[in-house]
Amino acid sequence: MSEPRPYTYVTLSMQPDCAPHVGVSFHTPRLKVRAGLLLSNPRPYLDFASHEANVHISTTGAGPVTDADLSLAREIFNAAARYLADCEQLHTEQSAQDATNTAA
Question: What top-level branch of life does the organism fall under (predicted)?
């Protein structure tokens, strides 16, 4: 079985009388993740970037931080914590399975 190859998948869907929809899926360890504070108009940002696509997240309307922005930031934090926990668990299980297969 060959090793999975990294990739980024970007789609754009446009239909009459509907807002366009952009989908971005990152499947690469070469993803860069940055967070910071823009100083010119103080607001936080979160960036996900690969060579193929960028996703930039910031406050509603690029304005002051709202209650909805705080709620979204908490959702992102909780989702990232869950992603980390799932990655750690699966990595441990897969490493143990690889060791078992190698020993057999």
Answer: Bacteria
Question: What confidence tens digit (pLDDT) does each residue in 23-38 have?
Answer: 999 999 899 999 999 9
Give the integer Cα–Cα distance in Å for 80 and 74. 10
First to last CA, the chain: 18
Cα separation values, 54 from 16, 74, 91, Å: 26, 21, 27
Residue 27 and residue 7 in contact, taking contact as beta carbons nearer than 8 Å: yes
pTM over 0.90: no
Using alpha carbons only, how large is the chain's radius of gyration in Å?
19
For residue 80, give every residue at least 6 positions away whose Cβ sits within 8 Å of its Cβ, in sequence order, or none: none
